[in-house]
Amino acid sequence: MKRHTITAFALVLLVLVFYPQRFSQSGGAIGQRRRTRNPPSQTPKKGTIDYSRFSHATKEHTEACKTCHQLPTANSAKVRGFPDVADFPDHGACVRCHRQQFFKGVQPIICTDCHTKTSTRDDERWEFRNSRRPQQFTIEFPHDKHQDVIASLRLLPATSARAFIKSAHAIDDRTRKYNNCTICHAHSRAPLTPPGGWIDAYVPAADTFKSAPTSHDLCFNCHWQGQEPSRENCAGCHKPAAASYVPVESPKRISVKFRHDGGGAKQNHPAECTTCHINITKSTTLRGLKPDVPITSCTECHNKDGLRQDLNNELAAIDKNKNFVCSYCHTSDVGKRDAPASHYSVAERPPLKRADLK
Predict the structure, then answer these.
(1) CB count, 10 Å around CB of 288?
(2) Can you give the chain as a three-state secondary structure string?
(3) Tally of CA atoms within 13 A in the half-sphere of 351 that contains its CB
(4) Other beta carbons within 10 Å of 145
(5) 144: CB partners within 8 A, 6+ apart
(6) Can you give the residue range of the structural domain that contains 155?
(7) CA-to-CA distance for 94 and 104, rounded, in angstroms?
(8) How many domains does one find in the chain?
(9) What pTM value is reported for the model?
(10) Which of 110, 134, 158 is a domain's end point?
(11) Does 185 share its domain with 123?
(12) Among 234, 255, 276, which residue terminates a domain?
């Protein structure tokens, strides 16, 4: 019996000497620590519905807009200054179909669609529309039809009733400019800085470019009621996009030094917009829309015998130095390129490539 006890003790001693890493100081295995309980993950598993990303493309979400959205919302007068959709739908629009997700846990993930914080004590919501999220709709705006309406108004006698339906927040007729695109396109407050900053540190003046409507205020002057698409027919202008996209906030500008209110001391630039933008009135959509001003719109004044020779002077400078950077209209990112064939055509010269010059 004594021999067996000594043998067992020796075996235990050998194990402790040669395999000490298997045991902790307390005599238990090191790998057998107490498990900590992790909180449930807010990230949806693969293959499940992500309720934190609302999509209008979902079949159940393709009902009429007014099914969920109210017009006007209670905060629109304060936020926008006119009746508009300026807030997310109320909780009733969500609970109607998503009661289970709405009351799931202390911080339901579905609430993050509209709220910056998921808390019963904090009602703070994202700005509507949430600029952090990709857009799901494109806008169908027929420039051609609106141009025809503007043109027809000029032909009506002063006493004739206007075809537009006026709303309570419409601008007074005496302040309107029916013969100009500035009805919708006024001066911007300040040009948005493009990604990467301004080329050559050239910052355009505030009156360089025209702004585009960013809300319904100008639309509702005519389309509040009666004139279709009216305020209740959102689908008349807003069309589902084929895929979500992030809009470009700073449009690409080729002639960034052009100023709409420029033109020297006489300010020769202000004129009928279609004097230069000859193709834009034919557009039936905003998709892929470009200013599209031909060089001939510029050279009527800037490359005319006896007046100015701005284009010819810069083309001649390229002839003398192939590294010359055209700077009268352009910043260096554009001015260092080969001049387009249209520029040489106006100058009545064959087009040249800088690489072919010595």
Answers:
(1) 6
(2) CHHHHHHHHHHHHHHHHHCHHHCCCCCCCCCCCCCCCCCCCCCCCCCCCCCCCCCCCCHHHCCCHHHCCCCCCCCHHHHCCCCCCCCCCCHHHHHHHHHHHHCCCCCCHHHHHCECCCECCECCECCCCCCCCCEEEEECCCHHHHHHHHHHHHHCCCCCCCCCCCCCCCCCHHHCCCCCHHHCCCECCCCCCCCCCCHHHCCCCCCCCECCCCCCHHHHHHHCCCCCCCCCCHHHCEEEEEEEECCCCCCCCCCCCCCCCCCCCCCCCCCCHHHCCCCHHHCCCCCCCCCCCCCHHHHHHHEECCCEEHHHHHHHHHHHCCCCCCCCCCCHHHHCCCCCHHHHHHCCCCCCCHHHCC
(3) 9
(4) 11
(5) 281, 282, 283, 284
(6) 139-242+249-255
(7) 13
(8) 2
(9) 0.62
(10) 134
(11) no
(12) 255
pLDDT in tens, 233-282: 898 889 998 888 887 766 677 888 888 877 777 777 877 777 888 777 66
Residues 69, 130: one domain?
yes
